[in-house]
Specification:
- Helices cover 33% and strands 26% of the residues.
- Helix 3 crosses helix 4 and helix 7 (188-198) packs parallel to helix 9.
- The chain has 296 residues and is of the alpha/beta class.
- The protein is globular, with a radius of gyration of 18 Å.
- The chain has helices at residues 9-22, 47-53, 60-72, 87-95, 107-117, 164-170, 188-198, 212-217, 224-231, 255-258, 284-292, and strands spanning 29-34, 37-42, 76-81, 98-103, 123-126, 129-131, 139-144, 147-152, 161-163, 179-182, 205-210, 234-241, 246-251, 274-280.
């Protein structure tokens, strides 16, 4: 979903006309430089358009990775859940030393992910649909404009499933996990606490898309995530709008009340959803990184 940046009628018409044309040949691979990083995308992908409209779009995550590496004094070990074409991973590794575990289940985007990161020894790819340890369901992808959400069903383009505990067992090179990014269109509010629980010994900083509408569409309670993270010892939250513009930094104890704003009609607020980053109360480097992240 694009940032809610004001556009003229002519700009909006041109953007939507371009999407209509590109959607007729959605699978065509194209090379693009997005915010200084080269990547291969399907022609239908919206990322270049969003970045052109809103320069801060998506830049909070790589800045957070760089800030965390600096605060920890060592390369960042990260996980990219819902890695898509690998754009977040490419941007993280463009600004910070480290390594990234990419988790992607949609076979269509896996092809592009492997084109972008397959030859990079700093990146491991887990071609699986990540589930929390209690989930037992078959899922199928629904794609739109460069993103995928999963719904109950079957598809030959869906990768096998893996639970969070199995994921850690499969990738011992990522035992020292320090940063987790999740963008799974509604499942973040259940997956992120599951990942934090599984890697509780490293207390990773958690960065995820927080969208009430998509969470409920997936059958999840978006507000419960704050209770779950509090029980795991997390206590500080940095919030951006979905265009990457900073909103504030707050105690986690305030988030359930503050999140009520996302239940107001979308027409009455300045953005669609939040990006949030959360640090553990026993992780001073994580809190330092949250406070250090600033727009460029």
């Amino acid at each position: 979903m694009p940032p809610k940046t004001p556009e003229s009628i002519a700009q909006r018409v041109r953007r939507r006309l371009g999407w209509a044309i590109r959607d007729r040949w959605p699978n065509r691979p194209v090379k693009r430089t997005v915010q200084g990083v080269d990547m291969v995308l399907p022609w239908s992908h919206r990322l270049p358009d969003y970045a052109r409209v809103e320069p801060e779009y998506g830049q909070n995550l790589p800045r957070l990775a760089a800030a965390l590496a600096a605060a920890d004094g060592r390369p960042v070990v990260a996980m990219d859940i819902g890695a898509n074409v690998g754009d977040s991973t490419l941007q993280i590794l463009d600004v910070a030393d480290g390594k990234v575990l990419c988790v992607e289940a949609d076979g269509f985007y896996l092809d592009f992910l492997r084109r972008n990161v397959g030859d990079d020894d700093r990146v491991a790819v887990e071609a699986s649909l990540l589930l929390d340890d209690e989930a037992e369901v078959t899922m199928a992808p629904v794609r739109q404009g460069g993103t995928t959400r999963f719904v109950p069903g079957e598809s030959e383009k869906t990768a096998p499933t893996v639970t969070v505990s199995q994921l850690r067992e499969r990738h011992p090179d990522f035992d020292a996990m320090r940063l987790v990014k999740s963008d799974t269109d509604g499942y973040d509010v259940t997956l992120v606490p599951a990942v934090a629980r599984t890697w509780s010994d490293t207390k990773p900083v958690l960065f995820f898309e927080y969208d009430h509408d998509l969470s409920r569409l997936a059958g999840n309670d978006p507000v419960k995530v704050w209770q779950d993270l509090d029980a795991l010892g997390y206590d500080l939250v940095r919030v951006w709008d979905n265009g990457g513009r900073p909103i504030g930094i707050y105690p986690l104890s305030e988030m359930a009340e503050r999140a009520a704003l996302l239940d107001e009609p979308v027409e009455s607020r300045a953005y669609h959803f939040w990006d949030v980053a959360v640090s553990h109360r026993d992780d001073p480097a994580g809190a330092e990184a949250l406070r250090a992240v600033q727009p460029g």
